[in-house]
């Protein structure tokens, strides 16, 4: 008699199972049973909803289908199938697996980062009978009645149940039924993503050519209202647009704008198949109505570069394009993108976060219109889901995006461009996978037989090395577009100026003079100080107290505008003390300087100047960044002060002066890539000057030590010289690209335990890998963050002749030993492969 309750009986000959990726940090797939009616519909790469734990549900991805029940546990049923087609392509699954293995994390962690949260779920508690339940004798009469009731519904919310059995009874009854395993409580899934559809109209496909259309218009001669509607339509949609391929259509409202009559005429025309209606997803961005711009004529040098790239692609999968700032790299990318699209393949164009927010998007939109998808973390979830689905549907063949765009469901890539390939923001730090989008792009292209173009004015040492080794092709362009030349760079010795007392606060007399001249000429200036806030800390002149974060081993930065002390690591905020909190002295002073202080001093030095500041603090809101750029572009700002945000990809005509503060701090950062970084940053920001043809730009670099080798390289714009020195260093000290590095960071809120765990882990690793390969443990630069004490262990491995898979497995094993050690409870280990 209970059989009717259970749709899945032992009589079933074949039971299907699926192995699923769940978005959690557990290093395995999970096996679930497939309800019979779902079995034929499932596809690898589709999303399903499954129960997890006692009351959770999760979105999972089908990775495998088979008929082997799991050995150790009773598989639970898949609750729901979300996709009829794979939402995740086979390439993506391959990518997920590769990333999990390469970056030493779980495939579920990759999935979690890859899918925009709109493709995951929100939920509501629901109750469903348990099809596996087979102890009906345990139930009371009421429970039994309820269970029968539940059988009629796929699932009920608590509210719906309440209506059935009375609200007060629900919690107790459910609790009892759950206890007896007769029902399952789970979170019901709501897909967050709801596309906004709009109804559009277009000419019926019958009217594919001009003749047919003319005949129609003639035919309508006697029906002037209908004819008028057709003519109106043609005013908006040119005759050349083939109605059969017209995805854009026209809003109905455009046609019956002012009269009721046209509305009924339109209805008749639709009925007579002159027009047809169709639905499209309303694009939330990109449909800006920008019309394609006039063709740009490439210079011979630019065309030469394109030809060389194309030729090299015949024998190399990756080409490094080293083109100086202002050489017109973007124009070259545009041509290559057009070529790839004409060849019928997809294109991905990666850009660092901040560079994507502005000018370049507008430039590309002028060329590609709404064929181009934009994938950016500042966009809403729905917008990102639309790009995802638009790629699957074929709406977007070309996407411009930030690093996470490597996760999009491409299946036919022909070209990936990684612009500003040296940018460190391509590396994800948290959470895992700690991937580098450039390196992932190269793998992605490899699987899809696509080509990769890495572009930069200051290539990373790694990429340039690969080019030197002929692993990558290399194309170089050392000429700015038009008559423009690279700016003239001067070093200003601030130590000397301080001695001669010609400095005014942080400004050298040399810089002041240039700024003044620029203001007189109504030309714009950019000032770069890579530190935000007013001053990095406060100090008491009497007792030497300094402002420090209670949670981290760093000083609290003084933010004058916000009247706060802030920790840039954990976000801790404090009021600014009027007196020294230790000795009560009034002599609390600011030490060092950030962008706020520069802005402030500038306003005093040049009261008439219009000054704007661009850093994390002034660009928190969605459009603030664009707004500042726009004002600067329109000439409403004379001097723009900013952090490295202003170094990236900006293209202004009227900037003729760039000032760089505190170059020494950039250079002497205790990190093996510091010189490379400093060179890149200084060169990039300098590259903002003098992009207009008629006057050479000027760059002034303030330093205490103008003799430093790196600054001489900057002066001579000697990228190759810098590269050679760097690569020699790297070789001597066995750093990448000559070795691979895996960094382990051990964390615990007690320093002793953290240190103990780190020591043990390092010893375990060294025992097998050899002590020459294991460095540390060492306290990192900031040894405590959010009350966790940190220790770093660096594992340096040869590039070749090493079984890297086996080594990674061994490292994982050692970490597991530490994590399961009872004496070292609550230690965590962060694994970072190829740290930056
Ligand atoms: P890069 O990215 O190499 O710094 P851009 O692509 O931004 O250089 O080009 C610099 C400026 O020169 C831009 O304003 C761009 O529109 C212009 N430009 C480059 N090539 C051409 C060309 N062939 N015709 C017209 N303008 C060009
Ligand atoms: Zn004091
Ligand atoms: Zn802090």
UniProtKB/TrEMBL annotation:
<keyword id="KW-0639">Primosome</keyword>
<dbReference type="Pfam" id="PF00271">
    <property type="entry name" value="Helicase_C"/>
</dbReference>
<dbReference type="InterPro" id="IPR042115">
    <property type="entry name" value="PriA_3primeBD_sf"/>
</dbReference>
<keyword id="KW-0238">DNA-binding</keyword>
<keyword id="KW-0413">Isomerase</keyword>
<dbReference type="Pfam" id="PF17764">
    <property type="entry name" value="PriA_3primeBD"/>
</dbReference>
<feature type="domain" description="Helicase C-terminal">
    <location>
        <begin position="575"/>
        <end position="734"/>
    </location>
</feature>
<keyword id="KW-0479">Metal-binding</keyword>
<dbReference type="InterPro" id="IPR041222">
    <property type="entry name" value="PriA_3primeBD"/>
</dbReference>
<feature type="binding site">
    <location>
        <position position="567"/>
    </location>
    <ligand>
        <name>Zn(2+) 2</name>
    </ligand>
</feature>
<dbReference type="Pfam" id="PF18319">
    <property type="entry name" value="Zn_ribbon_PriA"/>
</dbReference>
<feature type="coiled-coil region">
    <location>
        <begin position="505"/>
        <end position="532"/>
    </location>
</feature>
<feature type="domain" description="Helicase ATP-binding">
    <location>
        <begin position="310"/>
        <end position="477"/>
    </location>
</feature>
<dbReference type="InterPro" id="IPR014001">
    <property type="entry name" value="Helicase_ATP-bd"/>
</dbReference>
<feature type="binding site">
    <location>
        <position position="549"/>
    </location>
    <ligand>
        <name>Zn(2+) 2</name>
    </ligand>
</feature>
<dbReference type="InterPro" id="IPR027417">
    <property type="entry name" value="P-loop_NTPase"/>
</dbReference>
<comment type="function">
    <text>Initiates the restart of stalled replication forks, which reloads the replicative helicase on sites other than the origin of replication. Recognizes and binds to abandoned replication forks and remodels them to uncover a helicase loading site. Promotes assembly of the primosome at these replication forks.</text>
</comment>
<feature type="binding site">
    <location>
        <position position="540"/>
    </location>
    <ligand>
        <name>Zn(2+) 1</name>
    </ligand>
</feature>
<protein>
    <recommendedName>
        <fullName>Replication restart protein PriA</fullName>
        <ecNumber>5.6.2.4</ecNumber>
    </recommendedName>
</protein>
<keyword id="KW-0067">ATP-binding</keyword>
<feature type="binding site">
    <location>
        <position position="570"/>
    </location>
    <ligand>
        <name>Zn(2+) 2</name>
    </ligand>
</feature>
<feature type="binding site">
    <location>
        <position position="580"/>
    </location>
    <ligand>
        <name>Zn(2+) 1</name>
    </ligand>
</feature>
<keyword id="KW-0378">Hydrolase</keyword>
<comment type="similarity">
    <text>Belongs to the helicase family. PriA subfamily.</text>
</comment>
<dbReference type="InterPro" id="IPR001650">
    <property type="entry name" value="Helicase_C-like"/>
</dbReference>
<keyword id="KW-0175">Coiled coil</keyword>
<comment type="subunit">
    <text>Component of the replication restart primosome.</text>
</comment>
<dbReference type="Pfam" id="PF18074">
    <property type="entry name" value="PriA_C"/>
</dbReference>
<keyword id="KW-0547">Nucleotide-binding</keyword>
<dbReference type="InterPro" id="IPR005259">
    <property type="entry name" value="PriA"/>
</dbReference>
<keyword id="KW-0235">DNA replication</keyword>
<dbReference type="InterPro" id="IPR011545">
    <property type="entry name" value="DEAD/DEAH_box_helicase_dom"/>
</dbReference>
<dbReference type="InterPro" id="IPR040498">
    <property type="entry name" value="PriA_CRR"/>
</dbReference>
<feature type="binding site">
    <location>
        <position position="552"/>
    </location>
    <ligand>
        <name>Zn(2+) 2</name>
    </ligand>
</feature>
<keyword id="KW-0347">Helicase</keyword>
<feature type="binding site">
    <location>
        <position position="583"/>
    </location>
    <ligand>
        <name>Zn(2+) 1</name>
    </ligand>
</feature>
<dbReference type="InterPro" id="IPR041236">
    <property type="entry name" value="PriA_C"/>
</dbReference>
<keyword id="KW-0862">Zinc</keyword>
<feature type="binding site">
    <location>
        <position position="543"/>
    </location>
    <ligand>
        <name>Zn(2+) 1</name>
    </ligand>
</feature>
<dbReference type="Pfam" id="PF00270">
    <property type="entry name" value="DEAD"/>
</dbReference>
